[in-house]
Write a sequence for this structure.
């Protein structure tokens, strides 16, 4: 008996990675017509409001800002991207703000990390700053290469004063931020103002939150509008988008959020070639979530409530671009018909009611095929809810069984119902069944299905 982390099974998603045909365009991530600051949050919301479809950050004599305040986008995190927005700042000459990118939120709510700087006086506008970190990385008009030892080599991009002349005081300006790998470029009104290549690994951040800043100081007002995000294809890693459905069962079972957080954490800590980002409680509210994905993995309840049911065409478009698709446990089930046909195209198999069953039993996996998914996996057994007798593509064409076991005959009970019993299953008494499989899609890309995972502690089961 050997211990196994099912991370090694989930690693199938790596094999599913493929190149997207083309980059998608910019998408708005703030809806000016939505009520209030839906999808944005700050520790103290009294400084933040929406007026005429514009995000407004404002301090007054009656409501002063004594420590920097941050409004964090809640729908997702940034990795490689382009961001465009319009900003306007007013108040005294000390009025100051910024746009935090790939940043981290400290316990006190302070957001720290890369900041595209904004100010009214022109001392910092267009510069790249490291909030609560290394300080100024590149002033306006500078190109900086940060060495692995943290030393900065700075050269000129242009005259700082001349670049300041393109920034309109007390009027709207466009900020365009490009972050690809370890390089960050800032542009204001179409002109490059800062360019940083960050090679210092201990401080380099390749992912993190997006936030808007209202700086401490005298009364000021900062406004933001037309916030648009474009995801860029990662060049040095494969990106896996982990989608967790909401809670549905009792404690310890169908722990979709906890399960995906755990798997994502293990992937990021142990597989440097991968970046896993996790979206909780249903389909991502981030409209760009899957735009630069190499693979998506879904762990949720199935049937008519499956999180993909309202996104079938969207997922199918991803599959046609070669994006890998993995379905875990109940997520292998969708209704028969159009959704089932989609699932066959994506993963090569699915749970079909009145054909498949979902009993609990001890699955024993004594032999494993030679396949990239099974690298490092030893024979094991696990007591779980193993769905079996899947509806596969005809003749298992392009399907590779990964986990196969012979269920006890007691699981092939009498009766006929949607999930627990049917004549098709009883006709296979004593025969082996596939409970995990890989699929090479004829049009490119890969799929993966895994039917275990009912119990949360199964992720670390013997």
């Amino acid at each position: 008996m050997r211990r196994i982390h099912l991370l090694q099974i989930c690693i199938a998603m790596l094999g599913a990675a493929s190149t997207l045909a083309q980059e998608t365009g910019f998408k708005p991530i703030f809806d000016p017509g939505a009520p209030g600051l839906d999808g944005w949050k700050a520790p103290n919301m009294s400084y933040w409001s929406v007026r005429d479809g514009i995000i407004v950050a404002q301090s007054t004599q009656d409501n002063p800002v004594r420590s920097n305040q941050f409004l964090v986008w809640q729908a997702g995190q940034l990795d490689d991207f382009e961001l465009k927005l319009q900003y306007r700042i007013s108040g005294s000459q000390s009025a100051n703000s910024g746009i935090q990118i790939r940043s981290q939120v400290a316990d006190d709510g302070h957001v720290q990390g890369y900041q595209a700087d904004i100010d009214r006086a022109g001392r910092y506008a267009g510069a790249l700053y490291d909030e609560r970190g290394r300080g100024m990385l590149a002033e306006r008009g500078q190109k900086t290469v940060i060495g692995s030892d943290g030393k900065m080599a700075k050269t000129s991009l242009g005259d700082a004063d001349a670049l300041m002349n393109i920034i309109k005081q007390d009027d709207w300006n466009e900020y365009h931020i490009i972050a690809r790998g370890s390089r960050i470029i800032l542009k204001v009104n179409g002109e490059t103002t800062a360019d940083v290549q960050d090679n210092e690994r201990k401080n380099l951040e390749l992912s993190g939150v997006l936030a808007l800043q209202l700086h401490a100081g005298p009364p000021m007002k900062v406004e933001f509008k037309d916030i648009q995000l474009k995801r860029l294809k990662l060049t040095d890693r494969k990106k896996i988008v982990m989608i967790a459905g909401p809670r549905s069962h009792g404690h310890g079972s169908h722990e979709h959020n906890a399960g995906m957080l755990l798997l994502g954490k293990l992937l990021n800590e142990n597989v440097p070639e991968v970046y896993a980002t996790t979206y909780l409680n249903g389909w991502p509210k981030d409209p760009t979530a899957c735009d630069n994905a190499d693979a998506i993995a879904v762990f949720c309840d199935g049937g008519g409530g499956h999180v993909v049911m309202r996104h079938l065409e969207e997922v199918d478009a991803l599959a046609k671009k070669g994006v890998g698709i993995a379905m875990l446990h109940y997520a292998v089930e969708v209704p028969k018909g159009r959704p089932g046909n989609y699932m066959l195209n994506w993963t090569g198999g699915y749970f079909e009611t009145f054909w498949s069953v979902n009993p609990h039993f001890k699955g024993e996996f004594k032999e494993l095929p030679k396949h990239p998914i099974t690298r490092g996996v030893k024979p094991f057994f696990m007591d779980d809810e193993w769905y079996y007798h899947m509806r596969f593509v005809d003749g298992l064409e392009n399907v590779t069984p990964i986990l196969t076991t012979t269920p006890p005959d007691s699981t092939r009970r009498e009766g006929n119902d949607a999930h627990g019993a049917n004549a098709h299953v009883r006709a296979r008494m004593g025969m082996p069944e596939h409970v995990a499989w890989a699929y090479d899609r004829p049009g490119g890309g890969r799929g993966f299905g895994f039917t275990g995972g009912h119990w949360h502690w199964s992720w670390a089961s013997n």
Q: What stands out?
A: Residues 256-270 form the longest helix (15 residues). The chain has a mean pLDDT of 94.
